[in-house]
């Protein structure tokens, strides 16, 4: 029997509609053809999945989280996906599509961008092709997106240590259904339940309860007879569209089974809503610095959460850096050592690279994109190190200002790995305090931190959700609304596939 032909396409960008930043087409770093196969080790020649199907890379693009995607950029990438799919359809029969997305992409002038992308794809590939989507648990699943997919799953861990495992599961689910499909019209059922909860990832980490127990239910559900997959989406809190809320989807073959299990998961989520709290102690930046200085734990990490570039922040809000530079404790070289990661400043980098390591320079950086929350910061210090060639930052430099080491970049970059610091001649494990623009600490940072605190700082991904000003999400919504006139209806809506738009 010939192996099924499976195409791979999708665009991924977690975008904050509260950030003034805009995401362009080139930010997606699109991959095509064999580049896509090369990206995923589970599709390399000789692996079970590679042998199970003929995988055809169309185009995928994964942008660093940021601001809303400009419409022209979306149209450019979408048009290329459609053109390449049209070419493939003209030469062979496609059996399946792996829809490789995140689920929280906002596009100018458009609601529900992933559903719109899939709608256009369906026009080309037709109704008989099975589609399996893999998503971030911080994505959003509208009824329309569920309506156009056959299989859909998401991460079960936050931080997302199972990202690749989830993508592989989505592919195996697709292969499994294709192999067992004898009737061209036979496809799984999906039980979809929207839940009126919208929480930030920092309150729903699977490291702690109740998310830990909630997500532990998924493998149990998946192991049940007649269930193919079970998934829970927390949703994305920093965008303002009607689709932004939590969702449960259970996929399988028997309506009563998938409906009952979806309701069980959704009910657990809803009944646990008051138990969700920040993954770490939290407070203002000033109180966070006070706590770090008073603690004997070293290194002590402070999460500068409001401008987290991996959640959609612009990355160049200077509010926290200004506060730190104003602290007397860091003004002298002999003071407590602190690393700050990081601040974009292309003009500052030009001055630094011209002066070279060891020079004393005065530079101005930040607030080129997000000048809503603060203005540019000016500082004088000694150039500690310079590095070229990073895929995100392009150029990085460290300035020593008193006892602080401030990382400056040509373009914004997240700092998640110890090597990110070591390559800049910084030693985070020997520092007193490390301040990182992030939400919950990624695994390597979490392992390094002797203690840490979540600083509730301003920015496009502010943890104080009500002050952002959502006005398009469905209401009532926890925790925006604490009182509900009635218990939400958590009955499952059974969504069989249909190639026709919802009415």
From TrEMBL:
Q: Name one Pfam family in it.
A: DUF1485
Q: Where is the Microcystin LR degradation protein MlrC N-terminal domain?
A: 6-293
Residue span, Microcystin LR degradation protein MlrC C-terminal domain: 302-472
Which InterPro entries does the UniProt record give? Answer: MlrC, MlrC_C, MlrC_N
Protein name, please?
Microcystin LR degradation protein MlrC N-terminal domain-containing protein
Provide the species name.
Penicillium arizonense
Lineage here is: Eukaryota, Fungi, Dikarya, Ascomycota, Pezizomycotina
